[in-house]
Amino acid sequence: MRAAFFSELSGDVDYAMAEYQKALALNPNSVLAHQRLGFLLYNVKHKPAEGLAHTSETLRLDPGNGFAHYDLGMAMRNAGKLDLAAEHLTAAVRLTPTNFNLLYNPAEMHCSLGEVLLANAREKEAGEVLTRAVSLDSKNARAHYFLARAQAAQGLVEQPLQHYSIACSLQPAVDTVPELHYLLSVSLARAGQTQEALRSARKALELAKVRGDTNLVGIIKARMEDYRPKSKSN
User: Fold this and answer.
1) Contact 182, 201 (CB under 8 A)
2) CATH class of 84-89+106-173
3) Model's pTM, two decimal places?
4) Annotated domain spans of the chain
5) pLDDT in tens, 101-131
6) Contact 205, 219 (CB under 8 A)
């Protein structure tokens, strides 16, 4: 099993999978072999049905396996099953030690859960999880970025702007979510900062067009009209 594990770490996936299969031939209840095969088949070999079969078997044998919960949670996210994704990702961050980052990065695990919670309109919970992600890795651009998104959804201004700035300084290409800028524009306008609100709305519009989200483009354009000074009638 050690040979399989270190081969996987070195990038020799085919050899690692062959060794994991040998391990299962000797011990069909090998939790590690099932878990790693589940991950590799789903994520590397793009065989989701086979991969999920091994991941499900891992959790049958070891219900407290945080790595398998994470793998299943990400698969559920990919399938659009956000409630199930949140359930398994929550279990994953609860069960996985935060000092372990050989194959799974704890900050990234928290970040993935935060993104799913945001997609499920659970902004307050997302903010708490993403705050934890930032505390685990202050250089994680994605964690800062989606924490800004969660805070903006709660009507905050200064805090999300700070985390947004950090995220973009770490990784400029992370800035892809129009909703972050739209929500910031709403909060800035509410605070009387009209010009700043317009700038955020313009950025939101740009990103919405890149994403091809025509519905959001229309919403942003209507909001921008509200921000522009109205001419006084005689």
Assistant:
1) yes
2) mainly alpha
3) 0.90
4) 84-89+106-173, 176-229
5) 778 999 999 999 999 999 999 999 999 999 9
6) no
